[in-house]
Design brief:
Layout lengths: L4 H31 L4 E2 L5 E2 L5 H36 L2 H16 L1
Antiparallel strand pairs: 1-2
Length: 108
């Protein structure tokens, strides 16, 4: 039984479409898994989790410490900025009165 060339011409777009849609579906599914934090799967259906190593754990600890230090520094900068904003917005007489009060307090 030989394949009719007209039949092949009729079925070719269906086959190409099936392969194209299957590939697009696989890409979208993988992207959604990565985006939402699900583990990727191997060809056998087992989750492929990243390998944890001592070096990576140390790096995470170091980054967490640096993050805490930066948060503390940012808090200090925000406090200083608030004082500078208050000085820039306040009237001169009020600021002068506060400075005089601090000088009197320091002398006593």
């Amino acid at each position: 039984m030989a394949l009719d060339p007209m039949m092949i011409d009729a079925l070719a777009p269906v086959g190409v479409s099936a392969v194209l849609f299957g590939t697009i579906g696989w890409v979208v599914t993988t992207w959604l898994r990565v985006k939402n934090g699900y583990p990727l799967e191997s060809s056998w259906g087992r989750p492929m989790l990243p390998m944890s190593s001592r070096e990576n754990d140390e790096r995470v600890k170091m980054l967490a410490q640096e993050n805490a230090q930066l948060h503390a520094e940012l808090g200090g900068v925000k406090d200083r900025l608030a004082v500078l904003e208050r000085i820039a917005v306040d009237k001169g007489s009020r600021l002068a009165a506060e400075i005089d009060a601090l000088e009197r307090k320091a002398l006593n």
